[in-house]
């Protein structure tokens, strides 16, 4: 049995209801969901958050992580407390954040100093609240590249400040493997999908590629399906089957 956890990112299905997503997750054999703060789990809607918890409990699903759209250096740092409160209601201590809004090479010294200062404040808050602030390695953010991500992790130097990982379709497979391998010790969650340029493809076409990514992650990690090749909820069973094959289940 794999040590990793198989789940789903709710933003894969923005047009669908929370109830539909929970039931489809259960039927597909997945065990956890990363709820997105933009549509399904707004941080300021306690009633909705509690309804999600009820549905999770009824269906044997848990919340792996909270996918916020908070961006360090862009949004007011004081907003983080409300996101942490929401994550705790959902039952997770992992929050996904973005770090800045451009590649690390585009930051001036002054901008970088401010961004890193905000990151350190976030890390201190995370430690006080016993949660983990994890940066997505997303395009147009400071952690788009391995170099930017490692620089940030070393500068903040906190057990409560970490990373997500996902392949970047704009760089080579070899470079993606290098990024995964060198950042893995900081990673709590991995977003799983198969893209070529801007086109989404079924995950079963990339099983062998993903098995090589998997080797990079030695400690327990959440592997979460993000995006369906056709954006349809009906495709979740096939994508889940490919994920289970990758994880060796």
Features:
single chain; eight-stranded parallel beta barrel; two-stranded antiparallel ribbon; alpha/beta; 249 residues; 20% strand; TIM Barrel; 10 strands
Distance between the termini: 6 Å
Uncertain runs are none
Number of strands: 10
* Residue fraction in strands: 15-25%
The shape is globular
CA radius of gyration is 17 Å
CATH homologous superfamily annotation: Divalent-metal-dependent TIM barrel enzymes
| The CATH C-level class name | Alpha Beta
The domain tally reads 1
What is the CATH topology descriptor?
TIM Barrel
Structural class: alpha/beta
By CATH, the architecture is named Alpha-Beta Barrel
Mean pLDDT across the residues is: 97
- Strand count, sense and closure of the main sheet? 8 strands, parallel, barrel
List SSEs in N-to-C order: EHEHEHEHEHEHEEEHEH
């Amino acid at each position: 049995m794999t040590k990793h956890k198989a789940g789903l990112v709710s933003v894969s299905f923005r047009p669908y209801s929370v109830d539909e997503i929970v039931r489809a997750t259960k039927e597909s054999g997945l065990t956890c969901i990363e709820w997105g703060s933009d549509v399904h789990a707004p941080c300021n809607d306690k009633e909705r958050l509690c309804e999600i918890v009820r549905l999770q409990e009824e269906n044997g699903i848990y919340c792996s992580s909270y996918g916020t759209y908070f961006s360090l250096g862009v949004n007011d740092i004081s907003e983080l407390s409300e996101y942490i409160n929401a994550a705790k209601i959902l039952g997770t201590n992992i929050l996904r954040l973005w770090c800045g809004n451009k590649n690390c090479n585009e930051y001036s010294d002054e901008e970088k100093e401010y961004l890193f200062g905000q990151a350190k404040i976030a890390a201190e808050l995370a430690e006080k609240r016993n949660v983990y602030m994890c940066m997505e390695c997303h395009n147009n953010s400071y952690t788009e590249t391995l170099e930017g991500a490692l620089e940030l992790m070393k500068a903040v130097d906190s057990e409560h400040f970490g990373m997500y990982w996902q392949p970047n379709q704009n760089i080579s497979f070899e470079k993606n493997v290098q990024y995964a391998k060198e950042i893995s010790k900081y990673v709590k969650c991995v977003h799983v999908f198969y893209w070529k340029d801007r086109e989404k493809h079924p995950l079963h076409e990339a099983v062998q590629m993903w098995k090589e990514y998997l080797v990079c992650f030695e400690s327990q990690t959440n592997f979460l399906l993000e995006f369906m090749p056709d954006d349809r909820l009906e495709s979740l069973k096939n994508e889940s089957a490919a994920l289970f094959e990758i994880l060796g289940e």
